[in-house]
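So, read this over?
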Amino acid sequence: MDLELEALARAIAERVKGARPEPPRLRVVRQRLPEGPCLAPPVRSSYIRLIRSLERAYSAYGIDLIINQALVGKSRLEDLDDRELTVLVDDLQRARECIAEGISFEDAGLIRGRLFDVVS
């Protein structure tokens, strides 16, 4: 317990000095979903509405890049299959957390290095 308090005290002292803490090292862990349709139509519609709401609410933070990245090769959200839609909602929820914690989307692994590599 004393080590935890010492670490906390060091972190507070560094913050007071103006030193920026090292950003956390994050990695993306994706849940494997079953193949084929798994979302009931009302749930699917809710996901699409949620995505559009998050896009409007967080447009100033560039969350649309994550949405557009998921739509490469597609025309609209409705063209995403259930798995892609679920992954996108999970990514957007993580993006909200990143915005709140001041972590860049790149550091969180939400932005691919080469966006067009997803079309294959």
User: Anything to note?
Assistant: The radius of gyration is 18 Å. The mean pLDDT is 83.
